[in-house]
Write a structure and sequence with these properties.
The complex is a heterodimer. Chain A is an alpha+beta fold. Chain A has 6 helices and 10 strands. The termini of chain B are far apart. Chain B has helices at about 10-20, 25-35, 40-50; strands spanning about 55, 60-65. In chain B, about 30% of the residues are buried. Classes of the chains: A alpha+beta, B alpha+beta.
């Protein structure tokens, strides 16, 4: 008699530029679906576990950038493989011990459905906890950015706000942003994609018409958004 | 449940949403009147519709028993 071993189900990461995996999940603010956030940007993040030290500092950090994200039409949604009662107890404890109110909902992903769909589980690190992941989802529900941090390293909240700023500026102005870009810094105009356009980019005429642009070569030209 | 307690009574946000739905209103109207985030309004409206406390016609919602759509 032969036995057929069940093949492990391949669980890949979601892909940038594609619709973010849909979900319906219990949270500390009721049952929500991904589609409830349509029309807004969404930062979905996971943390390993409630009542743990690094996660507590991160939650205080996320609460600290909540208003900045709201000003950017961006909602915040946490997740861990804990029960909603654990989440409630933890966010109440954080407020009690540190005075920090946690204003955003937190998914209780006990069955790991959302964590699995988003590739938040890294068995090499932990078989039971989600890693420190961040997903930026645009108002159309498209996954635009992902950040993965290990269990041992708390995330940089300024970087999350900067990432949202960069995505929104890129969308609004059809530009890209250079390394370490901050709002107000110069942005990169689209690179020519033909030889003809590359020639134009280095022509006297282009240079005259684009005073104030900072051009390293045909493929790297920056401008201020005010220009 | 965000709008309904386990015993079927309304939570504070549920009462606020129902009050905002005495007249037909959109999700955005309810969010504006109640001050709740739009995602919470959408989630709450699903609960209230499932509990037959609110009905939906097109993009507008109204409390059951309030003036018809």
């Amino acid at each position: 008699m032969t036995t057929v071993e069940e093949a492990p189900v391949a669980r890949g990461l979601p892909r940038l530029g594609e619709p973010a995996p849909d979900f319906e999940a219990v949270t500390t603010q009721g049952t929500v679906r991904l589609s409830d956030f349509r029309g807004s940007w969404l930062v979905l993040f996971s943390h390993p576990a409630d009542f743990t030290p690094v996660c507590t500092t991160e939650f205080i950090g996320f609460a600290g950038i909540y208003q900045k994200l709201q000003e950017r039409h961006t909602e915040l949604l946490g997740l861990s493989v804990d029960s909603v009662y654990s989440h409630i107890a933890w966010v109440r404890n954080i407020e009690d011990k540190t005075g920090t109110h946690i204003p955003f909902p937190v998914i209780a992903d006990l069955d790991k459905k959302v964590a699995t769909a988003y590739g938040m589980l890294m068995p090499g690190e932990s078989k039971t906890e989600a890693s420190r992941c961040v997903f930026v989802i645009d108002p159309e529900g498209v996954l635009r950015a992902m950040i993965y941090y290990p269990l041992s390293t708390g995330r940089n909240m300024d970087e999350i706000v900067r990432l949202v700023d960069a995505l929104q500026v890129s969308d609004a102005n059809k530009v890209a942003t250079p390394a370490n870009w901050r709002p107000g810094d110069k942005v990169i105009i689209p690179t020519p994609n033909t030889v003809e356009l590359a020639e134009e980019r280095t022509s006297e005429d282009f240079i005259k018409k684009t005073e104030g642009y900072e051009s390293v070569d045909w493929y790297l030209t920056k401008k201020s958004l005010e220009v | 449940m965000a709008c309904l307690n386990a015993d079927g009574t309304l939570s504070a946000s549920g009462r606020a949403m129902l009050a905002a739905l005495e007249r037909p209103a959109t999700e955005e109207d309810v969010a504006s009147v109640t001050g709740l985030a739009l995602f919470r309004v959408r989630s709450g409206l699903r609960e209230l519709v499932a509990a037959d406390l609110v009905s939906q016609q097109g993009e507008r919602f109204v409390a059951t028993g309030a003036q018809s759509l």
